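Q: Sequence in, structure out?
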Amino acid sequence: MLFGTSGCHLCEQAEVIVNACVPDGVEYVDIAEQEQWQELYAVRIPVLYDSETKLELGWPFSLSEVEDFIGRVARM
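A: Exactly. Output:
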């Protein structure tokens, strides 16, 4: 999942990077939809998150860092 919110230019940049690494894309989650997400991520977005492993990758991140993150998730 990629946590972000509408109108966030950093979130848009992150989405481009993540989509380059994940051909099928990832689930984009707008933190404005739930108060708990706002509390956790309001000052940290965009954040790439894997719900199975609970691993997070916070912004700023590069293409290679996203690839490394995906590799770590796959190995767990």
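The chain is about 45% helix and 15% strand.
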